[in-house]
Amino acid sequence: MWEYTEKVKELFLHPKNVGEIENPDAVGEVGSLVCGDALKLYLKIDRATGRITDAKFQTFGCASAIASSTALTELIKGKTLDEALKVTNQDLAEYLGGLPREKMHCSVMGREALEAAVANYRGEKPPEAEEGEIICQCYGVTDQKIRRVIQENNLHTVEDITNFTKAGGGCGSCIPDIENLLKNVWAEKTVEPPAAVKKKLTNIQKIALIQDILEREIRPLLQADGGDVELVDVEGNKVIVSLRGMCTGCLMADVTVKNIENRMKELVNEELVVEAA
Amino acid sequence: MKTVYLDNNATTRVADEVREAMSPYFSELYGNPSSMHTFGGQVHRNIEVAREKAAALINADPEEIIFTSCGTESDNTAIMSCLESAPHKKHILTTRVEHPAVLNFCKTMARRGYRVTFLPVDRSGSLNLEELKASITDDTAVVSIMYANNESGVIFPMDQISEIVKSRGAPLHTDAVQAAGKVPVDVRKVPVDMMSISGHKIHAPKGIGALYIRRGVRFIPYIIGGHQEKGRRAGTENVAAIVGFGVACELAKKHVNTATATVRQLRDRLEQGLLAACPDTRVNGDTHNRLPNTTNISFEYVEGEAILLRLNEYNICASSGSACTSGSLEPSHVLRSMGVPFTAIHGSVRFSLSAYNTDDDIEMVLRIMPGIITELRELSPYGREVKRSF
Fold first, then answer.
1. End-to-end distance of chain B based on CA atoms, in angstroms?
2. Kind and range of the H or E element at A261?
3. Does residue A106 have an active-site annotation?
4. Of A67, A217, B142, B148, which has the most beta carbons under 10 Å away?
């Protein structure tokens, strides 16, 4: 049983803005029957101001897909198209009080329907047809989409990519390709030692940098072996982390913490010590 | 609100008789059956009574039964024993529609160097017996084929299967977790070498199973330790659960024919009622060779999780093969193997009944369900296409 928030349950049982708009100014359609979820978004747009005056949807899918559709229409009504495009999939999830990780793809679908509708209104090519090679044949997910979602949501595991895009969730034969894609995306983004900043980091900059290194470099490595790490606190030059998953109780935990410390010393400053909480 | 429980292939309620029989073992009768003193020793006698009852359910001898912690342990133990008994043989033969307890175990063995054949099924969920015959080689260490499928309810012709497998000289294990207690199972008529059964599918508690090992079949234990179960399964006996399991087997055997007839009637009424009330629906799997308690119906253009959660509002419990109800987003491997189109898998709902279900339960579902399907189809962009495309 999924741990849905009360908000998700409420909006699944009593969805808002359901149906078609007659003579809509824009329609955005994403997903398909085969994929297991699909969303058709209808917009009424004031041509003079570019403001969305009405939004309705039809959704085929699970509880979180239906709730995400309500969230989307509620969030974009009254906004101009440019303002609406600033609504991210995280915003949709937040509106719902959070979604189970495995269901994040429902919020991504909402965001995509919006992009499709705006493209439709502006007479552009629908983003669905964006260039790219299909990686997941089962759900028809392209490498472009996977790359974008990895970056927008800071994803580090294949499991999460499946949660957010459904790629790899069908037969699973594309999982090695997704692994490669994941490696490539983050290899392009490895943290460079910010030589100039190294001398005078403010406390906030220091914490942000530590967090960044953990997210981009350390966590993917640990997650690959079923472990994980979280930043608990930074007190002066003492960085306190908490090991998770397979790292807890691992005989090599001390070595892991030492390695994290070495990398932190290298990238942030020589004085740092790392301790496990 | 009364709970309408139609998910008995997932688990069942513990029968009152079972719970009462178990109760003393949580209080005064706490002795260890292996102890020398009478206080513990008397418990041992009751384990043997339970063994007789479990054996009787499938017409085996009590000596041919060992108790395990669950169906999964029985499955793993049986397959592993066959592999270790013939270490030079490197081939495993099973089907694509097995329960994960067999399927994933075989996949793990494949990673350890075994060659595994997963036999396909046709649209009705049935095996091609010629293909089975052709797939057994001199290198086959074990054939493991389920008795009845948990999702579709399809029953495999175990008499013919065991004849074919025996004629090729390979050992045969069957996962009969869904069959035993729901249809008559007789190891004298169906000469399998090993058979796994489970307690919580037949109104015993969770955490108890049994493995039948035909007399004379080589057996190598899986759980190693003390001498319990005559050295065939170590670990202090789960006495209360074993005693409860015995009573559940006794009840199942006593009622298997009458209860089956009643359950079948209710199931058929539910199935026919839903097919009549909801357009664009289909039953998945062979409706002739099928467990009397199971129906698996696809409702096109709607998604299974949405159906289940709407039913949940009325305390109606069922399950679905939809991708959204699995933790992995993977739609049911059983329905996929049967060639059920993805669109129909997403909208599949399994109802599985037990002797505790009543006419009122079925009435309730027939009253609620068509409205839910209509509502969800109205919400769906495909709802309007229903009439056009079919």
1. 38
2. helix A253-267
3. yes
4. A67
Best probe of the A interface among B96, B104, B299, B303, by most A CBs < 10 A, is B303
d(CA B74, CA B264): 28
- Each residue of B45-57: pLDDT tens digit? 999 999 999 999 9
Kindly write down the DSSP assignment for every residue of A106-146, as one continuous string: HHHHHHHHHHHHHHHHHTPPPGGG-S--EEETTTTEEHHHH
Residue A262: predicted pLDDT: 87
Packing angle of the helix pair B304-312, B359-379 (nearest 10 deg): 130
* Pairing state between β A141-142 and A134-136: antiparallel
Other Cβ atoms less than 10 A from the Cβ of A266: the count is: 12
> Average pLDDT, stretch A12-22?
94
The whole-number pLDDT of residue A212 equals 86
pLDDT of residue B327: 62
Domain of residue A205, residue span? 197-276
CA B350 to chain centre: 14
Burial of B141: CB neighbours in 10 Å, binned 0-12, 13-18, 19+: buried
Query: How many beta-carbon pairs under 8 angstroms link A with B?
Result: 79
Q: Cα(B62)–Cα(B75) distance, rounded to whole angstroms?
A: 19
Instruction: Report the C-alpha gap between B371 and B349 in whole angstroms.
Output: 15
| Residue A170 contacts B where some CB pair is shorter than 8 Å | yes
The domain boundary, picked from A94, A128, A162, lies at A128
Cβ atoms within 10 Å, residue A13? 14
pLDDT confidence of residue B389: 38
Whether chain A has a CB inside 8 Å of the CB on B36: the answer is no
Q: Is A35 a catalytic residue?
A: yes
CB contact under 8 A, B382 and A60: yes
pLDDT of residue B388: 39
User: Same domain, yes or no, for A182 and A259?
Assistant: no
- CB contact at 8 A, B56 and B86: no
Q: What's A48's domain CATH number?
A: 3.90.1010.10
Average pLDDT, chain A: 86
3-state class of A166 per DSSP?
coil
- Whether B175 and B300 share a structural domain: no
List beta partners, residue B5: B317
- Domain enclosing residue B197, as ranges: 16-252
Tell which residue, B184, B15, B209, has the closest CA to residue B99. Answer: B209
